[in-house]
Amino acid sequence: MDNKHEKYQRLIDHCRTLAPLPTAVVHPCDAGSLAGAVEAAQMGLIAPILCGPAVRIRAVAQEYGIPIGDYPIVDAPYSEAAAEAAVGLVREGKAEALMKGSLHTDELMAAVVRRDSGLRTGRRVSHCFVMAVPGHDDPLIITDAAVNIAPTLEEKRDILQNAIDLAHAMMFKEVRVAILSAMEVVNPKVPSTIEAAALCKMVDRKQVTGALVDGPLALDNAIDPEAAHIKGIESPVAGRANVLLVPDLEAGNMLAKSLSFLASADAAGIVLGARVPVILTSRADTVMTRRASCAVAVLVAEARRAKKAIG
């Protein structure tokens, strides 16, 4: 296995020892999304239920030689209907995850967060990238780079807790969260530094639990021990962060894509905070990234089952 994919491969290998995750695949009407779901199923990661126009799904499978075999198909005439059908499967207890196919993220998430018939919980829905960065020993979680545009302090609290819970589901030995800004000191003129300080105080007051959290921290002194040392920052997080909470979607999106396109990092994607994990894939995703996204969802679902069993 190429060293570039070693972190993801370890994750996938572990998840293949678990039961396949019943997953509603929403509108898999192009070769990439349909093949990605089938490949994950063949590896034993998911048990797919294909939601979308049955005639179109079968036509894509036949055209590209994708073996959909006996995978169940829930016929839905268009993308929004497919999203609603997939959410319905979750509410009926027939699926424990959703997987995005060839529809817009907004279409899928609209069905997920709908107040009357969606999958809302008391927690804000947020997105996490689980990134495998060459030269970086451990996976790196970045949040939120895809769902919440300009989150409030209250919303950041949920985004932070979602990311911490994900890190525990992924069996991080120690969860170390850096709340990022452009600087590592609190500056009243820079709102993200004030919010970072407030989040740290929320951690002190047990309003957020399960991790070591520090901020504000700039990116360099969050992940590079030498940079933290030069700045004289003494912290169990500085230079060692494995979770990065960004100020807003623009910052997170640029950070994640910079790592992907300039540092050749892979970026698996998952949405948390709903009743079940939502696997967000992109047309630009590699096969390995799609598999890793499914594996992350398997771990999240497994952690939820364990928590439910405890009561």
Which characteristics define this entry?
11 helices; Isopropylmalate Dehydrogenase; single chain; alpha/beta; 11 strands; 311 residues; globular
Describe the structure.
The structure is a single chain. The chain has 11 helices and 11 strands. With 311 residues, it is an alpha/beta fold. It has a domain at 123-273: Isopropylmalate Dehydrogenase, CATH 3.40.718.10. It has an 11-stranded mixed sheet with strand order 3-2-1-4-11-10-5-6-9-7-8, sandwiched between helices. Helix 3 links the parallel strand 2 and strand 3. The protein is globular. It starts with 5 loop residues before the first helix and ends with a helix.
Write down the overall mean pLDDT: 94
Please give the count of helices.
11
| Low-confidence sequence ranges | none
Strand content: 15-25%
Net shape = globular
Sketch the major β-sheet.
Answer: 11 strands, mixed
Protein topology:
Blueprint: H1 6-15, E1 21-26, H2 31-42, E2 46-52, H3 54-64, E3 73-75, H4 79-91, E4 97-100, H5 105-113, E5 126-132, E6 140-143, H6 153-169, E7 176-180, H7 191-204, E8 212-217, H8 219-223, H9 225-230, E9 243-245, H10 249-262, E10 266-272, E11 278-279, H11 287-310
Parallel strand pairs: 1-2, 1-4, 2-3, 4-11, 6-9, 7-8, 7-9
Antiparallel strand pairs: 5-6, 5-10, 10-11
Helix pairs in contact: 1-11, 2-11, 4-5, 6-11
In short:
The protein has helices spanning 6-15, 31-42, 54-64, 79-91, 105-113, 153-169, 191-204, 219-223, 225-230, 249-262, 287-310, and strands spanning 21-26, 46-52, 73-75, 97-100, 126-132, 140-143, 176-180, 212-217, 243-245, 266-272, 278-279.
